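Possible race condition, two jobs.
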Amino acid sequence: MSTGVKSYAAVDLGASSGRVMVGRVGPDSLDLTEVHRFPNRPVRVPEGLRWDVLGLYAGVLDGLREAGRVDSVGIDSWAVDYGLLDADGALLGNPVHYRDGRTDGVAEKVWAAVPAGELYAATGLQYAPFNTLYQLTAAHGSVQLGQARRLLLIPDLLSYWLTGEQGTELTNASTTQLIDPRTRDWAHGVAERLGIDLGLFAPLRRPGDPAGVLRPEVLEETGLTGPVPVTAVGSHDTASAVAAVPADGERFAYICTGTWSLAGLELDAPVLTEESRAANFTNELGLDGTVRYLRNIMGLWLLQECVRAWGEPDLGALLLAAARVPALRSVVDAGDAAFLAPGRMPERIAEACRDSGQPVPDSPAEVTRCILDSLALAHRKAVEDAQRLAGRSADVVHIVGGGTRNALLCQLTADACGLPVVSGPTEAAALGNVLVQARAHGLAGDLAGMRRLLTRTQLLTRYEPRGGTQRWQAAQARLARG
């Protein structure tokens, strides 16, 4: 290993799989290697849909064993979900999955105590039925919550098992709808009015803060030689992914693609207007005082569910066939909560097209093209709306995450937005995770420096928009009428 190069383990947990990556960072180098990947399979039990968090932790330990010597470990994952610990620090049951139905109808109870407009003005978070605030309201009065003495978000729970130390990382905490994005601290008034005990949460940590060292038992199980520090990163995977957007300057929009599409702008301050709330934009916290101003779009979940329903056909062949289907024949609202639950996705997309008076896609290629056109249309609207609501213009759209592998989606997004799209890096969350660790240990520089390093070292692809945006405007108007 060359002088000045350090190694960092990035634990990156997605909704369908987890991975441990090793990033090697030097003054002018950044290499990322996947050393272990493992499935993340939720389990439906009599009481509902649950995460197999013990299986995830076993995957993390296996990955650290494969990683070998590292200078630090960081963990990021999806947002909002949590584990509850008792007074002895033991886990009280498997964490509830955000797609579980327990929050159905809960929002109305919350808004009766804190009207939706007041809640948005205080927390800046868009309405999503699975936000931690709604989950805690749904759990109110349960035996499990009554016995709980600590609540740890998923990355913080795994970090606790690795180190024995408890904390609540800020970027992920900002997805709970219990953080004030102006003060970057808890929204005490909101919690008090809803009867939520903020004492359940461990003290807040910021990206780059120390989060303990691996316990002796973990060192023994993984074969690592201590001390190995654990570093708080942007533990919400989107925070890490946005940190890894290889942008130059401020005039950019981003789309973090994968199971979800998170589309928006990076700002210096939250946008808490009623117009912003009505447009369902969220203000989540990012690195170095930034705000991730974005809209949640259902994302490639729609295609993933269809592929599963079709028996896992070859994705490359399916996308080639979809590219030959006429554009914008049928579109659906890719942000519609009707698509949130798993199961019957091809039929549900067909039903949505039928109900809106559009041609009904009846082959996998037609359904796939409908999904990709719909996602590009949703990306266009989110980027447009974000610029208008924030008063900030964008000259380029950066797409990062798993969707960068889908060249058709990237090109359609460029066409829809009428802006060039720069695609890459694919493993943005893991790279952001690694770079925050590297910065905490004296490498990688500030956020702008991190992005310059990414631009020099990562494979990026540029897509220029084709044709005008009139047909996309027409499709958007058609969808609005439907």
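Job #2 (started ~2 s after job #1):
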Amino acid sequence: MSDLQQWLSAQRVSHIECLFPDLNGQARGKLIPCHSYLDSAEQRFPQVSLIQTLDGDPQQQLVADSDPDMHLRADPRTLCLKPDSGNGQRVAQLIHDCVDADGEPIPFAPRNVLQRVLAAYQQRGWQPVVAPEIEFYLLAADGQPLGATRQPYSVDHAPDHAAFFAELEQLCAQQHIASDTMLGEVGNGQFEINLQHGDALALADQVFLFKRSAKTLAARHGLLATFMAKPFADDAGSAMHIHQSLVDAHGHNLFSQPDGSAAPRFWHYLGGLQRYLPAAMLLLAANPNAYRRLCPHSAAPINVEWGIDNRSCGLRVPDSAPAARRVENRLPGMDCNPYLAIAATLACGLLGMEQAITPGAPLTGSAYGMAATLPASLPQAISALRDEAALHPLLHPQFVASFCALKEVEWQTFARTITPWERQQLLQQA
């Protein structure tokens, strides 16, 4: 009996949910009885399932005319019980990688994009370490705030939410999601969960599972959990800040030298983030709403200035001991695909080290007084990524082409939409 069979039997599991993230970070896959999964030599899925718009429209023109299958290859490290769906079934969930018939990674599968970047680090004997911060709003089922629930930086959640957060903590433990800190954020009904630092792929998996679990659990409590970057015009946006560092095979922080000072590669990594993150912004802000979050005096960045413990900057270097020297990328919105956002920031840092890019001077004042240097809209971000050839080999040219084309389709849909403001202000006045 295989290890998988033993685990399924011991856990009394009846079905396995075969999961993989699509380009927008949505869970795709299928539910299979255990006996069928174990008896089958392979699981297949159409490649076009990876390339779907936010409203669930597969983009058939972005894959081969033959509409080929891809093969799903399980990552056994991700095996865990799915949170109780309330129907009495015990279901296991298992994240899969997407490969072709020859076992080669599908270039536009998000998990493969991140693994491609990580492989470039591994070739050099380096291992990135990341720690994402997850911000989200807990709202009424109709999407409106739940009264006055603003509790900035509080650990005392509103009594009405106590059951939700207690169950959420249990679900994190059940799925090996290493939740660390939980607190109330600045927005009305906004909260933050910090994850413990660790392997970049494992942390991306954890964010992927957390977002799905929080939404499902909120619905069971008659609530709505949203990871939208800017759900309210006059309230704080939700970000996924990414803390990142680099260690060797022995766990030593490669951003620090033996005497405790910053290593040259630390400055070059930081320089790479400054140089290339504006071009990679499409992977950090992948829909029109995400750009509404990036505005001055909103705890969200407008550029890639950097500073020591300076939260107005897009790149914050926490004041820390040499063993914990790291960079915090404050650009990604929480609606990003975590695999792609982490891949983007690591790719930019790697290019900086390869090219020995020197960063600008640290900022001691407010970055909001400096020029805005990030793309201001989705079309600008699409053009920026297409034009930055240095990023294409790391991310894979086919991924870049497919992702940009998908985002163009979504932008065209958005641009055709008549907004409530237009009808209110122009219907009678124009």
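The first helix runs from residue 3 to 10.
Logs attached separately.
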